[in-house]
Design a protein that fits this description.
The longest helix has 9 residues. Helix content is 13%, strand content 32%. It is of the alpha+beta class. The strands form 2 sheets. Strands 2-10-9-4-5-6 form a 6-stranded mixed beta sheet, with no helix packed on it. It folds into 2 domains: 117 residues, Sandwich (Immunoglobulin-like); 38 residues, no CATH class. The chain is built from 3 helices and 10 strands, in the order βαβββββββββαα. It starts with a strand and ends in a 7-residue tail after the last helix. Strand 7 and strand 8 form a beta hairpin. The structure holds 2-acetamido-2-deoxy-beta-D-glucopyranose (5 copies). One 2-acetamido-2-deoxy-beta-D-glucopyranose binds next to loops. One of its GO terms (cellular component) is membrane. It is found in: Membrane. Its main location: membrane.
Length: 159
Amino acid sequence: MVTLHFPIAILLTLLHQAEPRVETSVFVLKGQDVRLNVQTNVTLQYVDVLYWKFNRSDNVVKYPPKVTFERYQGRVEFSEGNLSLLLKNLQEGDSGLYDAVVSGNKDSNVAAYLIKVQVRVMPPVLTVDSNSTINDTCTCTHNKLDYMLYKLHSRPDCP
Ligand SMILES: *[C@@H]1O[C@H](CO)[C@@H](O)[C@H](O)[C@H]1NC(C)=O
Ligand SMILES: *[C@@H]1O[C@H](CO)[C@@H](O)[C@H](O)[C@H]1NC(C)=O
Ligand SMILES: *[C@@H]1O[C@H](CO)[C@@H](O)[C@H](O)[C@H]1NC(C)=O
Ligand SMILES: *[C@@H]1O[C@H](CO)[C@@H](O)[C@H](O)[C@H]1NC(C)=O
Ligand SMILES: *[C@@H]1O[C@H](CO)[C@@H](O)[C@H](O)[C@H]1NC(C)=O
């Protein structure tokens, strides 16, 4: 699981910045979890409601009272203590913008993350050994592997 922390210096700078803020890009491997923290010092007033949203339109959770919207039930966990959102078992379709908005007398953006879910790419299974016994294995049967090895070593002819 990846936890995102803003260095204190940056956090303090952000506290004095007006919104909108640039979103933080996060790359996550498919199937992993990621915790998104609010990026400012949020103190909810009694009129305030916090929303975590996806792609600006889908509501993920709101608080208070704590509600996880239907599409996200079982896939996210919201922490009331620090207002962070845990996204679990991310899939490619979960890529997009996640932001947190506090709605009170006015809306204020308190976090924005651009999540990019990546599929782990397997390295190709091809090992080249300088001591390989190509000469022995290239039997000119013209099967694909022989041909590949033959091309790879640019040998003029099969023995
Ligand atoms: C957060 O804000 C509250 C109220 O404005 C303040 O009392 C508190 O010290 C702040 N915390 C930090 C870590 O800045
Ligand atoms: C927020 O709370 C959750 C659950 O209690 C915890 O796992 C996480 O580490 C906390 N994040 C921060 C930045 O404190
Ligand atoms: C969310 O937004 C991103 C970036 O604009 C887009 O690539 C993605 O398809 C959107 N996802 C959904 C489910 O709308
Ligand atoms: C390659 O062959 C030489 C001589 O037989 C041997 O000393 C060396 O350890 C071999 N290298 C590898 C990577 O197998
Ligand atoms: C492989 O063939 C090349 C020339 O075709 C030869 O120089 C080399 O000694 C041979 N290697 C082995 C391991 O037979």
